[in-house]
Structures are given as structure tokens and as C-alpha cells.
Design brief:
Elements: H1 2-11, H2 13-18, H3 39-53, H4 60-71, H5 75-82, H6 90-105, H7 118-123, H8 129-168
Helix pairs in contact: 3-4, 3-5, 3-8, 4-5, 6-8
């Protein structure tokens, strides 16, 4: 089942090579390892994408693509893993990461009023950066581990069920 999800993404190799952020890597993208659909390559790439989704830097997709190139992993799976953070989910996930960091450091969480301004970044972010970064790191590690294990398990079960269904069919050799 997971292979059916990633296969259409891998077939669009020529579209990926034409994206503005992938043009410097066009020659590297010819290598088949970046598009292979074996379980080990895809699960590792998906876990990398999940880990990078919690990094508090912009452009997660570009970061995932460059990291997948450096680690020789499946590029579409790494990019797909970063899509857990989107404009609808990023604020609740980062707030939860801050709460996790506060709990791990034993700090009482302070209420935050987020504004995307330089004044907020220079004054309000200063007291919360340690628990925020720790929470992002912990949540990235946990989500990457869970994603790796769950995707690998689903992939393996799909293969086992397909094998059993094939074995259960009566052969019609004529």
C-alpha cells in the first residue's frame, strides 16, 4: 500500500528536476537511488522529512530535498514527510513543542502572543528559545521514529498480505 502512494510521486521525476530549487542539483537527480521505491530507502527518507518538519526554520521542503540528496534517500518521500507542518498545523505543533520543552526542563510554560514582527522576535522569543528548541528536537525525534516504524510495519504487512493472497490462489497450470 505505501508503494502505491509513493509511486506516482517518483514517476514525476522530470517535473521535480525543473523546479527552481532543484535546478542546481539537476545532474545529481539522474541517479536512480533518489527515486527508488524500496522499503528501506523510503522509510528512512520519510523519517528524515518528519524530523525536518519540526525544525524551526523556513523552507522545510527545500531542506528535506537537499538533505535527501546528501544522504542518498528518496526525495519525494522526504518531501512528503515535511508536509505534516503546513499553515494550519504549524502553530499548534510548535506550541506543543514549546510545552514539551517546558515540561522536560521543568519550567512553567508562559502564555505567548505570537506576532511575526522583528520586535516580537527580538524580545519575546528570547526567554522561550531553549524550551522551544528542545521541544522541537524531541518531537522531531519522536515523530521520525514513529513514522519510520509505522511506515515500515505497514509496508511489511502489505507485502505479507499480498504474498499470502498470491499463495492462496489456486494455480491453473494448463
Amino acid at each position: 500500500m505505501p508503494r502505491r502512494i509513493f509511486k506516482p510521486l517518483s514517476r514525476q521525476r522530470h517535473r521535480w528536476k525543473e523546479r527552481w530549487f532543484m535546478r542546481p542539483f539537476r545532474l545529481l537527480l539522474e541517479h536512480p537511488v533518489y527515486w527508488s521505491l524500496n522499503r528501506r530507502n523510503v522509510t528512512r527518507a520519510f523519517a528524515l522529512g518528519l524530523f525536518l518538519a519540526f525544525s524551526p526554520v523556513p523552507l522545510h521542503i527545500v531542506l528535506a530535498a537537499v538533505s535527501a540528496l546528501a544522504l542518498r534517500l528518496n526525495i519525494p518521500a522526504a518531501v512528503l514527510g515535511t508536509l505534516i507542518t503546513n499553515p494550519l498545523t504549524i502553530v499548534p505543533l510548535y506550541m506543543f513543542a514549546y510545552w514539551v520543552g517546558c515540561m522536560l526542563l521543568g519550567i512553567h510554560p508562559e502564555p505567548m502572543h505570537f506576532e511575526l514582527t522583528w520586535n516580537w522576535l527580538s524580545t519575546e522569543l528570547l526567554p522561550i528559545w531553549k524550551p522551544f528548541l528542545l521541544g522541537c528536537f524531541v518531537m522531531g525525534c519522536v515523530s521520525a521514529t514513529l513514522g519510520y516504524v509505522l511506515l515500515g510495519t505497514v509496508w511489511h504487512l502489505g507485502l505479507v498480505l499480498k504474498y499470502r493472497a498470491r499463495k492462496a490462489k489456486p494455480r491453473t497450470d494448463a
